[in-house]
Amino acid sequence: MTEAPMIDDTLSEALVGAVRDVARAEILPRFRRLSGEEIDTKSGPDDLVTVADRAAEEALGERVARLLPEALFLGEEAISTDPSLLDGLDEADLAVIVDPVDGTWNFARGLALFAVMLAVVARGETVFGLIYDPVLDDWMLARPGQGAWACRPDAAPRRLRSAPEKPEAEETGYLPTGLFTMPARERLLPLYLTHRRVQNLRCSAHEYRLMIDGHADWMVTHSSNPWDHLAGRLCLTEAGGAIAQVGAVPWRVGDTSRVLLAARSEARLGLLEEQLSEVFDQ
User: Which of this chain's residues are annotated to bind Mg(2+) (predicted)?
Assistant: First the structure.
């Protein structure tokens, strides 16, 4: 077993720099310029992949190999072709997992609500998480025990805090209702009646960003894909929030099959688990 490297400031800055460079080279030049032939589907008509996703993933793999040559590199698009690539993630001494364009549907339709997500995992523990917005060139990052931070090139980093407690009727939550089975959708409907706003941004990265920065209160997702959630999970928990895979204790980083619940605090997560216990027990 090799010793996992500490993600110090120098390595953190290098990883951020790699993501920024790749976004400028492979993602932004294609935004609102994709032809129909450059957009494809994966599991269904709304599960899109573009030439930007694939080119960015390849470029990120090359940059990560220079910075962390010993790391297992996993990208969403490679995993979608060969899911067995995830088999070694939980036990890997060191791994880097990326979503090259989180929010591909938005990206492909010209909506500026997409991001790059990158997480570094050491023996099942996420030791670095990055959520990068290519459009505004800003990012959130976290390392265990060091807090979550909002960063931009022209300003000092800002410490992030999840939302304060508030009445349920004033809460905003995220719920991709259409991704659940019809029986589950029916049981989830009360959430729409008891909260101020329930919506779906079609982009995990930006849902996490709003929760981490105190502008949303909870999230329910239909799966726990690590490329969608490991970076956001670390940033959220470092900002004071909480997250859990339904029925999975302890958390398994390579598990994609679990419904995931996240909230602004441990207390709110407990209430959310209680509210939804019957939904996912059936």
Answer: 76, 99, 102, 228
Find out whether 102 is annotated in a ligand binding site.
yes
CATH for 9-159, among 3.90.1200.10, 3.20.20.70, 3.60.20.10, 3.30.540.10? Answer: 3.30.540.10
User: What is the tens place of the pLDDT at every residue in 27-61?
Assistant: 999 999 999 999 999 888 888 999 999 999 999 99
Low-confidence ranges of the chain (pLDDT < 70): 1-5, 248-249, 281-282
Q: Was 228 annotated as part of a binding site?
A: yes
97 burial (CB, 10 Å; 0-12 / 13-18 / 19+) is: buried
Looking at the chain, which residues constitute the CATH 3.30.540.10 domain(s)? Answer: 9-159
Each residue of 120-151: pLDDT tens digit? 999 999 999 999 999 999 999 999 999 999 99
Strand extents, DSSP E, 111-191: 115-122, 125-133, 138-142, 148-152, 155-159, 172-174
Percent of the chain with pLDDT over 70: 97
168-281 CATH choice from 1.10.8.420, 3.40.190.80, 3.90.1150.10, 3.30.1380.10: 3.40.190.80
Task: Provide φ and ψ at 29, rounded to 5°.
Answer: -60, -20
Question: Which strands make up the sheet holding 260-263, listed edge to edge?
Answer: 197-199, 172-174, 218-221, 260-263, 242-245
pTM above 0.70, yes or no: yes
